[in-house]
Amino acid sequence: MDKQLDLKVVIVGGGFGGLGMGVALKKAGIDSFAIVEKGGDVGGVWRENTYPGCSCDVPSHLYSFSFAPYRSAKTRYPSQERILAYLRGVADTYDLLPHLRLHTTVVEASYREDIARWELTTGTGEHIVADLLVFAVGQLHRRYVPDIPGREDFTGAAFHSAHWDHRQNLRGRDVAVVGTGSSAGQLLPKIAADARTVTVYQRTPHWVLPKPAAEFGAISRWVLRMPGAHRLYRQALYYGADIALAPIVHRGWSARPAHWLARIHLRRHVSDPALRAALTPDYPIGSKRIVFDSRFHSTLGRENVELVTDPIARITRNGIETGDGTHRRADVIVWATGFRASEFLTPMTVRGRGGRLLREQWSDGAEAFLGLAVPGFPNAFLIAGPNSFNPAGSNPGMKERQIAYIMACLRWRDAIGAPAIEVSGDAMRQYRQWLERAIAKTVWPAAGASWYKHEKGRVTNPWPASARTFARMLHHHPAAAFVPVAANDAAPVTPLPIHRHPPTHDEATPTAS
Ligand code: N01
């Protein structure tokens, strides 16, 4: 098959970022775009993660688009099914379905300097040519399963938490869960109620904070029926997360209330001192993403659940052997071992100006101006790119900021009549300096390995400041950081001066989104 599609914008990924971008294009009257999605449906991680107990640990009123806010007076924390239904609803309401190209994997994207456009090749042999390329593939979709000796010898069922094997009935079976992050925290209480035994293999304890009930109580429901209450609640969550949670990553006194709360929570739910000691992290809270769950710790105290902290030595045909020589039987192994989050855009081949390969430019860890643009890659943008994951708030809101900025870039490019625009080296340098200073103030540089960091040690994933700071920095006009690029330009044309406070534009006006 050798078809060609000619578009103004091509979006890669049909999750929150890709759908939000599609809505922004529709609202701007742009119809010439496609959303290319490797899966068979929209939803991104909310389509992929179907493990028992999968839900959101950010309240629904904040974990939604500002243009399509949840208006539930019942649900505080939505389930995976509800979020997926919400995203399908957004795609339907905004007429995005005709733009979707499902079961289509982008293999390669190359910037054609002669025409100042992007050319994409898909796994089905399709060619897509577009002015603008937007990667909206997220950070948490490449599953990680550790290469432990004997893994292939296991004769039972083994699967990753993000690729749940629903054919497996866990009732009455011996289940091993490897990992104790957010996914394990959510799935453990569900499977422990069914399985004969669950053995949880912990390498490092995570800090755990309690999560309120998933449904509102009677008084909250009554209050939420008042006019404007949803909006106010959303604003309160936005500012509350920024004020209470974002400072946790900055060491010192600001982290103390969360640290105390986590310790009180542990004490309340785990009475056995040995188990409590095993579950107490020896690193500052916020170093890894905090697990928000009220049932994880208490479930570890169940009779049929065992926490194992000896390192896994090998997998056998019917279980797991730890370093102390103990062998524990397992019918099923659940790998709740997370994602290759720092391998942004892998395994796609992305070529920019002069044939430069993005993977080579990022060999020491990915970086992008405000998580959305890379020098040398004109007219290409990322949503949820490097250092734009908000560990303390709502990521749909972060994505909306980036989308508004990308739309401003598109409008500016059209207004000045340039075939392409690119973030300037100067703007990238200034931003990098700011980013490095901001990261140095956090707990992350001194922390051990986590999905926040590249294997070479650079912190590549989380945003090191508040959501309001992100909004402020994305409030600038693109002319402050981008330069026009002509077709066949070896280098960007003379950079424009960087304005500290250029004129504002409506879409970037900070609101609680
Ligand atoms: O993955 P993780 P996750 N031997 O990377 C362990 C989001 N999320 O899927 O800490 C033994 O957090 C590893 O141990 P260690 C959320 O942002 C959101 O749970 O590296 N263990 C760790 O315990 C979250 O942060 C929701 O020492 C090994 C675990 O596996 C992100 O997704 C819900 C090991 C991996 O934890 C990822 O969460 C769920 C080995 N060889 C997830 N290798 C919401 O509600 C790794 N581990 C929005």
SSE layout:
Elements: E1 4-12, H1 16-27, E2 33-36, H2 45-48, H3 80-93, E3 100-101, E4 106-112, E5 117-122, E6 127-135, E7 157-160, E8 174-178, H4 182-192, E9 197-201, E10 208-209, H5 218-224, H6 229-245, H7 256-269, H8 273-278, E11 291-292, H9 296-300, E12 305-308, E13 312-316, E14 319-322, E15 327-329, E16 332-335, E17 349-351, H10 358-361, E18 380-382, H11 395-416, E19 420-423, H12 425-440, H13 467-473, E20 482-485
Helix pairs in contact: 1-11
The structure holds 3-acetylpyridine adenine dinucleotide.
Describe the structure.
Strands 1, 2, 3, 4, 5, 6, 17 and 18 form an 8-stranded mixed beta sheet that branches. This protein has helices spanning 16-27, 45-48, 80-93, 182-192, 218-224, 229-245, 256-269, 273-278, 296-300, 358-361, 395-416, 425-440, 467-473; strands at residues 4-12, 33-36, 100-101, 106-112, 117-122, 127-135, 157-160, 174-178, 197-201, 208-209, 291-292, 305-308, 312-316, 319-322, 327-329, 332-335, 349-351, 380-382, 420-423, 482-485. It is globular and about 70 Å long. With 513 residues, the chain is an alpha/beta fold. Helix 1 crosses helix 11. A hairpin with a 2-residue loop joins strand 13 and strand 14 (319-322). It has 13 helices and 20 strands.
